[in-house]
Automatic annotation (TrEMBL):
It comes from the Bacteria. It comes from Haloferula sargassicola. This is HTH-type transcriptional regulator YwnA. PANTHER family: HTH-TYPE TRANSCRIPTIONAL REGULATOR YWGB-RELATED (PTHR33221:SF15), WINGED HELIX-TURN-HELIX TRANSCRIPTIONAL REGULATOR, RRF2 FAMILY (PTHR33221). Pfam families: Rrf2. Transmembrane segments: none annotated. The gene is ywnA.
Length: 138
């Protein structure tokens, strides 16, 4: 199964914008920083814009900048903005009616995995983009 990297790419983008707050960046320039295509990057930027984390301008000279100070953006804000998947995925196989494990495993796993997911989100809520930027500069 391929890993979803949209969260880490979004943090990369926002950190780049936060490191140079007076400069508005184009999607081409940001894509080069992440080493991805501008079209892929624009989908991520659209999600960040919809969440109110960046301001964008469209057109040939379109660019983007942070909508808030880095200290006011948490990693949880970014995680939710890009609709990152849960830390653990539960399979989507059809249950085999003759097997009680098969019939009940999804509910048991949802119960067991809800606490680690909540802990992950609580941890992300305690880390700001500003902290990430400071770590980059250290």
């Amino acid at each position: 199964m391929a890993a979803n990297t949209q969260f880490s790419i979004a943090v990369h983008l926002l950190a780049g914008l936060g490191c140079q707050p007076d400069m508005e960046a184009t999607s081409s320039r940001l894509a080069a920083s992440v080493n991805t295509s501008p079209s892929f990057l624009r989908r991520t930027l659209a999600k960040l814009s919809k969440a109110g984390l960046i301001h964008t301008t469209t057109g040939k000279a379109g660019s983007c900048r942070l909508a808030r100070k880095p200290k006011d953006i948490t990693l949880l804000d970014i995680y939710k903005a890009v609709e990152a998947p849960p830390a653990f995925a539960i399979h989507h196989y059809q249950p085999q009616n003759a097997c009680y494990v098969s019939c009940n495993i999804k509910a048991a796993l949802e119960f067991a995995l809800s606490k680690p997911q909540q802990a992950l989100e609580a941890s992300l809520a305690g880390i700001s983009l500003g902290q990430i930027i400071r770590k980059l500069k250290s």
